[in-house]
C-alpha cells in the first residue's frame, strides 16, 4: 500500500514536470512566432477562450445527461 502511494506521488511529480516543460516550450514557441509577426497573441487568446467555453458547455451537457440517466435508472 505504501508503495502504491509512492508510485502515485512519483507519477504526479513526473506529470507536473512534463507539464512545466510543455509550458516553457509553448511560451518559447509563442515568443518566436510573435517576434516574426507570424501570430497575434490576442487573436490566439480569444480563440482559445472560445474553445474553453465550448468544452465547458459540452461537459455541462454531458453531466446533465448523466444525471438524467441516473434518474431514469432509479
Number of domains: 2
Estimate the global geometry from the Cα principal axes.
flat
What's the overall average pLDDT, rounded?
Answer: 88
Rounded to an integer, what's the Rg over CA atoms?
20 Å
Helix and strand composition category: mainly alpha
What is the distance, rounded to the nearest whole angstrom, between the alpha carbons of the first and last residues? 36 Å
Strand content: under 5%
What is the ordering of alpha helices and beta strands? HH
Number of helices: 2
Low-pLDDT stretches: none
Instruction: Outline the biggest β-sheet.
Output: none
Percent helix range: over 70%
Number of strands: 0
Brief summary:
The protein starts with a helix and ends with a helix. It has 74 residues and is mostly helical.
What are the main properties of this structure?
74 residues; mainly alpha; 0% strand; flat
List the helices and strands and how they pair.
Blueprint lengths: L1 H34 L5 H33 L1
Task: Please explain how this structure is put together.
It contains two helices and no strands. The two termini are 36 Å apart. Helices cover 91% and strands 0% of the residues. It has helices at 2-35, 41-73. It has two domains: 1-39; 40-74. The chain has 74 residues and is mostly helical.
